[in-house]
Structures
1.
Amino acid sequence: MKKKLIFAIRDDDVSFFTSPEKYEEFCSKYIKNHSLISGIILNQKGSPSLNIPTKYWYTELNYNIEKNSGICKLLSDLDNKNNFFPAIHGYEHNYLIKDNTFVPELRQKKASTKLNKNLDIGEKFFLKTFQNPQKLFIPPSNTISANCASILFKRNYTLFNYPGIFRRSRDSIKGYKVMIERIMNIVFKRIDLQKPYYENKFSKCFNAVPLTSLKSEKQLNKFTNYCSEKGYPLIISMHQWELDFFKPYSEIKFLEHFLEIIRFLELKFELVNFNPNAEIIS
Ligand SMILES: [Zn+2]
């Protein structure tokens, strides 16, 4: 008998620039009935990013997802199927260039003052587009300041990926506090980093494994067996827009790599659809 594994795919960066035809093909052909968490960018800023056509990179304008009626209609249709979980994936998902480094949206100055307003706008859009949407949030660029994380938890959001507290945690006192609490939990309560994080008030989070980090079958075997034994969900994060790209230093495209992993999982496990069971937006 096959072992059970709770499983979901987390696809980030659905925005004004997402082609409804390509996204529909991605869902029907490759996701099929697996759980899909879709990270939606509400008002994408024209900035250098591979999910945006190059001619928009330096426009400094915003592109609202509602102006792409095709993708909004598709998202709403997907919502009628089981196992579809839309998540807010930032408002502008932009970058500021400071000292030759890219500063992502929720690490920028005054990000926390804008966040509450942006969440209100996001929730309005979600209520209009989806039935009973859950309060789910995927930090843009997988990084977030402790102050922004605190706002999200106050509003009862469930996060995908723990706020990057180990990196740049010295940005604020709260960051330090979260870091200390987390280290104490790892050392004294032997909290497992792969486990869905529920150990403190700052940590209503599920971890995800990037598709790009899954490199060998041996690693995948070890990791999936571990999640299956412990009953932890395996959530693979990826980007539909990168499926046509070649993997670095390889002749294999991301699509092939993705399909190989799905085949492996389907063959080896009885896959159980993940449901975040988070609070509903109302
Ligand atoms: Zn993203």
2.
Amino acid sequence: MAKLVNLPERRDVDGTWHQVLRDVCYWCGCHYLYAEDDHDLVWEPGTAQEKACSDEDCECHTAPLVGQHRD
Ligand SMILES: [Zn+2]
Ligand SMILES: [Zn+2]
């Protein structure tokens, strides 16, 4: 796959770099990141809760996946 320009990169738990895209958490409205080459590989906000957050107990805050696959 061609490498897209101007996308930020994040490292997953295995130390592999991925280009990432932003999306909005379905449950609470906060932004999270997912890998451009693997949409189930996510970086959730954890304690970085946004003003527009509608559920501070959302799992993306209480049990964030950071560079990990969701089930
Ligand atoms: Zn959330
Ligand atoms: Zn939130």
